[in-house]
Write a structure and sequence with these properties.
alpha/beta, five-stranded parallel sheet, six-stranded parallel sheet, 11 helices
């Protein structure tokens, strides 16, 4: 059955999402998707669709739609919708949820769906390996790799690094997660007790969206240790890493940048389920 979708804002994954929806026979109206522009008429068509798909993440900065061209406050965007529409977005913050409710709208967060977050984590883990290999002058085989955090991404990244022959150490806060790390045959460290344990790592991958490695801890890493921060909020102190001369990459939003087709298919499937 043909449906009418509006896709507004976002990166390459939203552009791929448009292509996939159209390939399935749906009508798609777009506005500022994947760096493409859009005028007032395009916005009017997109906001009038039966189902409107907003970006992942919804916002870039404080209260501003994640949109490369003609960004706008989300509060202004929500005033354009009607109460009976289905509005979908990813990583919706409390502020945007309140803005939508004030307009009588129901804004559903597709990133809360487990099937999407797991698939997104798998894509992030694979892309993280790609980023690391692009910044290394040696193979991951035999390297000592530290994965900070043992959530979805941490678990899947540890598996992939292990599969490539790396020696994996993972950190967690909960005793149960530490037990699982050991059960997989990897070394386990407590996330908050890393002092004195960092001297042998060749690469560090952070998945924790809060400060984990400050200057004093970073100074304990070997001078050529690659630091890859995967979190939306930096867990590795960038300024301290630069001062110490450590190679550092903030590799956030990897699915949208490196594997947009896979990321788009995951969002499409979640939208269809909803």
């Amino acid at each position: 059955m043909n449906k009418i979708f509006g896709v507004i804002g976002g990166d390459r994954r939203q552009a791929e999402l448009v292509r996939l929806l159209e390939a399935d026979g749906h009508t798609v109206h777009t506005y500022c998707v994947g760096g493409t522009g859009g005028g007032a008429e395009a916005l009017d068509r997109a906001v009038s669709a039966e189902t409107v798909i907003l970006p992942l993440p919804l916002c870039r900065g404080d209260g501003v739609l994640n949109c490369e061209e003609s960004p706008m406050p989300t509060a202004d965007l929500f005033r354009r919708f009607r109460g009976r529409q289905l509005l979908l977005a990813g990583q919706v913050k409390n502020q945007q949820r309140r803005e939508a409710e004030e307009q009588g709208l129901h804004l559903e967060d597709y990133f809360l769906r487990e099937e999407l977050t797991v698939a997104n984590a798998a894509a992030t883990a694979e892309a993280a390996v790609q980023v690391a290999m692009e910044h290394l002058d040696r193979t991951l085989l035999g390297m000592n790799c530290l994965v900070l955090g043992f959530g979805r991404i941490g678990k899947l990244l540890s598996h992939r690094l292990h599969g490539l022959g790396a020696r994996v150490t993972a950190t967690a806060r909960k005793p149960g997660d530490l037990a699982w790390i050991r059960a997989y045959g990897w070394q386990a460290l407590e996330t908050g007790r890393l002092d004195g344990c960092l001297g042998d790592f060749d690469a560090v991958f952070n998945t924790v969206p809060s400060p984990v490695l400050d200057g004093s801890l970073l100074s304990q890493l070997p001078k050529d240790c690659l630091c890859v921060d995967l979190a939306s909020v930096q867990g590795i102190d960038q300024a301290a890493a630069a001062a110490l001369g450590l190679p550092w990459v903030w590799a956030r939003s990897l699915p949208g940048r490196l594997v947009p087709r896979t990321a788009a298919a995951v969002i499409r499937d979640a939208v269809y389920y909803i």
